[in-house]
Amino acid sequence: MGTAGSTVAAIDTQQAVKAGSPSNLSVTAYRSPQRGEGSLDLDTLGGFALIRETRTIQIPAGETRLRFEGVADGIEPATAILSGLPVGVIEKNLDAELLSPQALVARSVGKSVVLVRTHAKTGRVEQIPGTLLSDNDGVLFQTRAGVEALRCSGLAETFSFSSAVGLSAVPTLSVLVRTPEPVNTIVTLSYLAHGFDWAANYTATLSPDRKTLDLGAWVTLANGNGVSFPAAHVQVVAGRVNRADAADDALAGQEWVSTTGFSTEPAVLANCWPRGSTSDTVPAVLVISAQPLGSDRLDMYGGVVPAALMESVVTARQRVIQEQLGDLKLYRVPALTDFLSRQSKQVRLLDRSAIPVASVYSVKDPESAGHSPGASDPLLYQPATMLLRTKNDAAHHLGLPLPSGMVAAFAVRDGNRLLLEESGMRDLAVNEEVEIGIGVSPDVQVRAVREATHTQFDHAPAVPLVPGVLSVKQLQIDDVLRVEVHNARTAAIQFELPVLLAGDTRIIRADHSFAIRKGRPLFALTVPAHSTAILRYQTARSELRPTQPDEAQ
Amino acid sequence: MHKAFFRLAAAVVALAVIAPLARSADRALAVTIYAGDLALIQDKRDIEVKGGRQRLEFEDVSAKIRPETVSLSASDLSIVEQNFDFDLLTPAKLMEKAVGQQVTLVRVNPANGAETREQALVLATNGGVVLKIGERIEVLRDDGLPVRVIFDKVPENLRARPTLSVTITSSHAGQRPATLTYLTPGLGWRADYVALYDEASSKLDVEGWVTLTNSSGTTYDNARTLLVAGSPGQVDSTAQRFNYRPPRERSSLQHPGTESGSRERLGDYYLYPLAERTTIANLQTKQVSFLNVHGVPAERRYEFHNAWLGASQTPQSAKSVYSFSSSAHAGLGDQLPAGILRFYMRDQRGDPQFIGESRIDHTPMGFTVSLETGDAFDVKVQPTVVKRTRISTFDWQTDMKYDISNALPRQITVHLYQDGLYGDVRLTAESQKSTRPSADTAEWSATVPANGSVAVTASFVTRF
Fold first, then answer.
1. What is the CATH number that goes with domain B2-88+158-184?
2. SS (H, E, C) B210-264
């Protein structure tokens, strides 16, 4: 039953020509669309890249299958664009069946193989010619002696294959072209490939007087593919780009075959017959589930290289150059660089010094300092959070797009840097406000106490729901809240309290003035050194309550 | 029980001996692929038929064949029954089928490799294999020492691959052409568009490719291929499960059109025949060009949708949206099969860079298509709920403010949408005139100066 033989024959009827090796490479990395802020994860690179390369081709007249070997393993074949061919492209193909132990066995079903049996003690090797019968849930083969199952006997057994039966060793894109005369030209191939990612990594160093900040940043980009890009133009693009999810596709339901190291192709399992023994005391039904114990895994290659094996390269001499790309920001590494397989690379993004900042204390969870029932727990103190605020404009020594990433804030002590806090930053356009968290201050403690609640019926008449039985009446509920800010520091601090008001809750009275910021009332107070500031405010909200009609009168 | 099995096995073997294989080497294939993981295969091959009742086996049919859809047509043939044997050959199955039969055991001495052979009768395979050797009863490999089990042959109804067999009767022998027709999942197609946007002239160059994928487990050699834009209704529950698509966030179709193209149709489906025969290899992705248009006028716009009572602490990016027409006049001039459209734009060095992609529906000619490519880095909107007031027992007033900022060095227009205006919502005040694309949505077109910002405010009276 030769199932695969005819395939190879059909492809062989055209002339197959290998394109030259890629040159003039360009890699543009895009961030993982799912990651809003934060740094990249070398184990799961969720971004992608646009790869462009040129190759020299020499094709004879007639119909030719042009093979582009060594494209990135994460190639999305549907995105391949080939330009520069003077003749019509009939079709493009990506053959996803790579040379792997599983594919070798699958392709060899019905073909002759050589069984190699090695004796464990003596090392004597026996070579027995036979035919591979099936590879469903275990491998069966036939020799002159009869039919046997692979690796069920307890002997060291493997196959030796005669040829690689039409499988490609590296991901290969092939293009069928027809030309009336021989062509000798240079073509450009571009495609999207997954297994890449990049992020910005900021370091913010706070001056001892806490009035200015030095901001430096790296672009960290990583290639999780098995293909290297030597002497490449490398770019990264900031901003979220839309990806149409291939899973929710007309082709969904098919296994969209992954050709990367992330391959999910199952390993060939040498499953045997049931292997229960007389020493098993488990019930017979359970013995069936113990069957995988009798499975030997054939070799399984591939898989993403763990992060520890990723090489890391830092380049500080040069800085990326930013340009506008539609509504996105493109950063170009100015010189050609080697972007190797399983490598993460860092290039300087920016260095800005003496950025004036305002240092502000606030509460991490302003909601809990507002109206939740827990807020009235008089013992619930929470330490204030500290943040630095500045504006992304030229007056503050910034004024450039800041792509999202992780910010590590440092303070300097005796010439050594101390990490204060790591936090995520979203994409910031010019003129946006920049806030960098620098940790929590146990010296500044905040608590909120609900001092009193008043309930009074509104003047509006009750609305009957079921006449004579049930009415609904509007209530006004007033809360008096006290917020204490205790400052144990030796200097005065700026404290900000944003208040979250749900529904129609409004502040009707307060002993401090407040402003509306980001859509919320915000109290800003100065708390002198070694003292406590008390803020009292009263809120009002309405509620509907069902009442008896007579009670409502 | 064992006797019955023997008789059955013997019958199967007897039948198999006379079953000719319908060779696939010189078959003529026609493959019709629908847009929803379904294909109709017509497989014409010459078959050698003897007179009388016999079994025909068809190799190289799709491994995912839906056997209930198979039909075979040939002159002077009548079908007795069709079988799809999916009892696969595995070591465990082979041992199970050997119950009551003799197998050969080869014991290998681990110390010196010496082999001893003996015959054994397989008694049972429940949990472990129990053998009868001479008068002893033994459990296979209970002691963990190497034992090879050799079977004489493979039972005929166990197969390496699922196989279709048809039992037929024919009044006379001879070679004749036969056509096998069946439906199979595992083959699918969609369109992939490459659109290069030129910012200076606001024009698009669009190239369209048909992308075929084959995961049906079989290669279709030299097939005449026809693609159908549209997915026929299927009752099959598995197909329905696979065809599930989550609800879309925004439709790609904007303004309707009513033009007709020159493409071939079948009923209301558009047909895309491939110009030449092609080989669709297993696990292959294949692309064939079908559209190439230059200089289509396109418009770039910014959109922001806000949910009811949507508010955010930080500004959110507006969406970059590109719209163009599929009309013959100033458009693509073709109907567009559903697929993915990828946008590219040239960087300052002149190289095209990817700027986002979007799904596109089956689009007739004359429609305006509007596709989102991603977030605009420099255009941000911060919606805030300024105030909620209960103005009477059951009525609320909501004051909204939308701060729009533009860090681009040019003036832009942002299309701001407030969604979720269900029921008897009234828009009582607004800072600029809105339009209502639907009862549930209010739209403002806000002009934002270069490197500047504007605010739009609106008040709604609602029951919620």
1. 2.60.120
2. EEEEECCCCCEEEEEEEEEECCCCCCCHHHHHHHCCCCCCCCCEEECCCECCCCC
